[in-house]
């Protein structure tokens, strides 16, 4: 069975600082990988996804993530945090050939001025 | 706005009762997924329908059931409700059943409170 581990339930950064949210997965075969963001009282919105090809994936709002097979990781980064980035971020995986998602516990990104 | 609509937005009910949550997928999407988000369990996949047929089942309790109608809207039925069923229930939709490269678009959710 697949599982997703997000290190840190909360990450605090200052505005303009680097954002790094960690995600590791457990799967016998490299899965498809996703990052979703959830703003307060809203549904989830896709930030980016990795399926095949280039391991560095660029998403919306300046976020990017790199798939590292040897480390079974898919960490999310952004060079410069903005106040509007404050939200819950979820890493998710789906097994190749299947469309259902397995989510991590989520990391709340807090951005201070 | 993802294009996925869910009603009602909030639902407050008592233990032992039965409720129905409704979801309308994005225009053109044939797959509907239901997820439950709670503080202790996090976000969990419940069930998926594709064009009216059940396609995948996750951690869905026997007290819960779902269906997808010919117009592609879906309903999640929760019965014999317990306090622990209090959660945010999300519906998501995507274009087709297979190929996890399809993006799932999430609705705003229905917050269920069981008293």
List keywords for this structure.
heterodimer, A: 113 residues, mainly beta, six-stranded mixed β-sheet, five-stranded antiparallel β-sheet, B: 115 residues, 52% strand, globular
Q: Return the average pLDDT of chain B rounded to an integer.
A: 93
Query: Largest sheet of chain A, described in full?
Result: 6 strands, mixed
Residues in helices of chain A, as a percent range: under 10%
Provide the β-strand percentage band of chain A. over 45%
Q: What distance lies between the first and last C-alpha atoms of chain A, to the nearest angstrom?
A: 41 Å
Radius of gyration over C-alpha positions of chain B, nearest whole angstrom: 13 Å
Overall, the morphology of chain A is globular
> Helix/strand/pairing class of chain B, anyone?
mainly beta
Shape of chain B: globular
Order of helices and strands of chain B: EEEEEEEEEEE
Distance between the termini of chain B: 31 Å
Work out the radius of gyration of chain A: 13 Å
Give unreliable regions of chain A as ranges. none
As an assembly, this protein is heterodimer
Give me the count of strands of chain A.
11
Percent of sequence in beta strands of chain B: over 45%
| Number of helices, counting only DSSP H or I runs of 4 residues or more of chain B | 0
The number of distinct β-strands of chain B equals: 11
Poorly predicted runs of chain B: none
Largest sheet of chain B: 7 strands, mixed
